[in-house]
Amino acid sequence: MKINTNNVSLKISAGVPSQFVRAPLPQIAFSGRSNVGKSSLINTLLNRKSMARVSSCPGKTITVNFYNVDKKLFLVDLPGYGYAKRTLEDKKKWSMLVDGYFTNNPNIDLLRLVVQLVDSRVGLTKDDKDMVEFLNQSDIPYIIVATKTDKLNKTEREKAVRALVSDTSLMPGTQIILFSSESKEGKNDVWDAITKYAE
Questions:
Q1: Looking at the domain assignment, is residue 1 inside a domain?
Q2: Is residue 143 part of a domain?
Q3: How far apart are CA 157 and CA 185, in angstroms?
Q4: pLDDT tens by residue, 129-138
Q5: What is the residue-wise DSSP string for 35-81?
Q6: Is residue 125 included in any domain, yes or no?
Q7: 3-state secondary structure of 101
């Protein structure tokens, strides 16, 4: 599948499940903690600086954003989880939206892959493991993208990779991609995974 990343548009920022898109295109969802770098990853993939909004206040935006890429697939940016300062009302809205995406999505059968982001400096948090457990139980394919690798030296990178590879939360053989929005490391590998699953 050849993708023209110059032909991209934000289809909708859905604030309620009823707004989720119904177009019959494959969906690739991006999941992760607030401030893990989802927007930076999406912007890097699309060769844009601000297609996905990078917020200085993590957890501020609670919407599911659908990006139509070359009319061939949707990149779906799920709101980040694990932001401690969210109000109870915001947490309820987050839960409604994310649960709704997986359980009340008219095109859930078109979800081909979840790109699960993990901060390479932190590893899998409890929230990350809860998400992975859900994906395992739901039999939803996923890959792990370890972000912010430019912040690590060689020894720290090797340690981070070993920790992820040996983590029993992940399905055996789960693909792990090291990524940096600064150096663009891993960009092509993420695209390869997306196009493989989207086809």
A1: no
A2: yes
A3: 13
A4: 999 999 999 9
A5: TSSHHHHHHHHTT-SSSS---SSTT----EEEEEETTTEEEEEPPPB
A6: yes
A7: helix
- With contact defined as beta carbons under 8 Å apart, do 49 and 7 qualify? no
Q: What is the domain count for the chain?
A: 1
> Residue 98: which residues within 8 A CB-CB, separation 6 or more?
64, 78, 79, 81
Of 33-42, 71-80, 83-92, 95-104, where does mean pLDDT reach its minimum? 83-92
| Predicted confidence (pLDDT) per residue in 26-62, tens digit | 999 999 998 899 999 999 999 988 777 655 455 556 8
CB of 135 within 8 A of CB of 175?
no
Query: Which pLDDT score, from 0 to 100, does residue 129 have?
Result: 96
Compute the distance between CA of residue 118 and CA of residue 42 in angstroms, rounded to an integer.
14
Domain ranges, residue 151: 8-198
Q: Which residues pair with 116 in a beta bridge?
A: 31, 144
Structure tokens at 172: 């055996």
Whether 117 and 82 have beta carbons less than 8 Å apart is answered as: no
3 occurs within a structural domain: no
Task: Give the CATH number of the domain where residue 61 resides.
Answer: 3.40.50.300
Question: For 174-183, how does the pLDDT look when each residue is reduced to its tens digit (9 = 90+)?
Answer: 999 999 999 9
